[in-house]
Design a protein that fits this description.
Layout: E1 5-22, E2 28-48, E3 53-58, H1 70-81, E4 87-93, H2 104-119, H3 126-136, E5 149-152, E6 157-160, E7 168-173, H4 180-187, H5 199-207, H6 210-215, E8 218-219, H7 222-228, H8 232-241, E9 246-249, E10 256-260, H9 263-274, E11 282-287
Length: about 290
C-alpha cells in the first residue's frame, strides 16, 4: 500500500431553501444558500496494487459499506472513468450524523473524489470534477467550495458567495430520521405558491447582521417535515427555549440549528440543551468554516 492520504469532510447547513417545482427528470428545482460548518468526518485513502475498493467506517453503525455508499460509488466511478488499474483501502471516521440534512454523505463523496485524484495521480479539470460530483448527488457540488454558496437547478448549479464573518450555532440532531424522498414528495402538494428568493438573507450575510440573518432564514422543507414527523415542533421549541435567536431545520432534516449572537451565547445555549433528556440525540456547538 501507499502512504495514507487524509482529508476532512465538512458538514453544511442550509440557511435558505426554496423548492420551485418538480422537473421532468423527477428532480426538484431548488434555490438554496448553504454554509460549511466546523463539524467534520475524516477520510483516509491508501492506494493498493489490486483493483478492489476496500471500505470501512468507524463510528457510524448505520452507514452502508457496499456500493450504495456515496464514497464507494464516487471512487468506483472515477476508477472506471479514468481506467485506473489500482484500487484503494478507504476508512471513513464518521462524526456528522446521518439522516440529518447536514450533507455528510455528499461531503464524504467529494472528499473521496479528491483523495482518489491525489492517490491515483489523476489530472482532472475543474469542469470534469464538478461533473463527477453532480453525477453522484445534488448536494455534492457545494462541497467544492469552502465559502457560502447559492445553488440552483437541482442543486448542481453553484455560485460561491463572498466569505462571511463567523456565525455560531447550536446544532441538535434528534434520534429520529426522515426519508428525503418522502419529504420532497409532500413538498409541492403543500406549497403555498409564494416562491421566495434569498436576496435579503444574502444582504444580511454580507452586512454581518446576525439578527437580520435570523429574520431571513427560510426552509420550505420544514412544511412537509412537520407533517411527517410528530416531534418537529417539540424539538424546535427546545432550541428556542435554550435562548437561540432563530431556529431552523437544515435541508430535509432532522437536524435543527439555532443561530446565536456569538461563541459565548452558543455555549450558554448548549449548556441549557445539555439539561434535556439524552434521547433527544446529539448536540454540538458549531461555527461556520
Amino acid at each position: 500500500m501507499s502512504t495514507p492520504l487524509t482529508l476532512e469532510a465538512p458538514a453544511k447547513i442550509n440557511l435558505f431553501f426554496e423548492v420551485q417545482g418538480k422537473r421532468n427528470d423527477n428532480y426538484h428545482e431548488i434555490v438554496s444558500v448553504a454554509v460549511p460548518i466546523q463539524l467534520w468526518d475524516t477520510l483516509t485513502f491508501e492506494t493498493t496494487d489490486t483493483p478492489a475498493i476496500q471500505f470501512e467506517c468507524v463510528g457510524g453503525k448505520e452507514v452502508p459499506l457496499d456500493d450504495t455508499n456515496l464514497v464507494v460509488r464516487a471512487v468506483k466511478n472515477i476508477q472506471r472513468r479514468y481506467n485506473v488499474r489500482n484500487g484503494a483501502a478507504i476508512t471513513l471516521t464518521k462524526r456528522i450524523p446521518s439522516q440529518a440534512g447536514l450533507g455528510g454523505g455528499s461531503s464524504d463523496a467529494v472528499a473521496a473524489l479528491r483523495l482518489a485524484c491525489r492517490g491515483w495521480n489523476l489530472n482532472v479539470s475543474d469542469t470534469e470534477f464538478l461533473s463527477m460530483a453532480a453525477e453522484i448527488g445534488s448536494d455534492c457540488p457545494i462541497f467544492l467550495h469552502d465559502v457560502p454558496t447559492i445553488s440552483t437547478g437541482r442543486g448542481e448549479q453553484i455560485r460561491p458567495l463572498p466569505p462571511i464573518a463567523p456565525l455560531w450555532f447550536v446544532l441538535l440532531k434528534p434520534t429520529e430520521g426522515l426519508s428525503t424522498a418522502s419529504v420532497y414528495a409532500d413538498c409541492m402538494p403543500l406549497h403555498d405558491g409564494q416562491f421566495r428568493q434569498p436576496d435579503a438573507l444574502i444582504a444580511a450575510l454580507s452586512a454581518n447582521n446576525v439578527r437580520a440573518i435570523g429574520h431571513h432564514l427560510f426552509n420550505r422543507l420544514e412544511v412537509p417535515a412537520q407533517k411527517l414527523w410528530y416531534r418537529f415542533g417539540e424539538v424546535r421549541k427546545k432550541l428556542f427555549a435554550s435562548g437561540c435567536l432563530a431556529v431552523q431545520m437544515s435541508g430535509s432534516g432532522t437536524a435543527f440549528f439555532g443561530l446565536c449572537e456569538n461563541e459565548a451565547h452558543a455555549k450558554e445555549a448548549y449548556q441549557r440543551l445539555q439539561r434535556e433528556p439524552v434521547q433527544d440525540g446529539k448536540r454540538f456547538v458549531v461555527r461556520t468554516s
